[in-house]
Design goal:
Elements: H1 16-23, E1 28-32, E2 38-39, E3 54-58, E4 62-71, E5 85-91, E6 97-102, E7 115-122, E8 128-134
Antiparallel strand pairs: 1-2, 1-3, 4-5, 4-7, 5-6, 7-8
This protein binds zinc ion (ZN).
């Protein structure tokens, strides 16, 4: 498990809760108690009103694909094992848009508007990364 060679997030004091959440299979989103905004990615202050009065809510982890692209070749060698790579923006019901990879599916079946859900992969002992995969009907 410690052989993961790809870039890893640098955990910051204001993002620590997010990464504890992913380890526990929860997708946590910041919420501003002053203006009621949901915030992603984690920040020190609300980007809408600059309040520091923030807490965390658990997202359902269900989202809709807003846009995507598929990479078939031309990546750095450490990413070659992941080809083809589906990079996507997904919209969550909390009103946030998240950049992610769509995994565990045939990239040919990925469509804009497709319903996806978060899944988690433990890539090191410390880091669990969130990805999305199509919801099986
Ligand atoms: Zn705010």
């Amino acid at each position: 498990m410690n052989q993961y060679k790809k870039p890893l997030p640098e955990i910051q004091p204001y993002s620590e809760t997010f990464w504890e959440g992913t380890k526990n299979r929860k997708l946590l989103v910041q919420h501003c108690n002053d203006c009621d905004s949901h915030i992603f990615y984690p920040r020190r202050e609300c980007p809408e009103c600059w309040s520091k009065n923030l807490d965390w809510v658990e997202s359902s982890g269900k989202a809709i694909i807003y846009a995507f692209s598929i990479t078939y070749e031309g990546v750095e060698e450490i990413f070659a094992e992941d080809l083809p790579i589906v990079l996507a923006w997904v919209d969550l019901p909390e009103g946030i848009r998240m950049q992610t990879n769509i995994i565990d599916c045939d990239p040919k079946n990925v469509e804009i508007g497709m319903q996806v859900q978060v899944i988690f992969k433990d890539v090191t002992d410390e880091i669990t990364l969130p990805y999305f995969t199509p919801i099986q009907n």
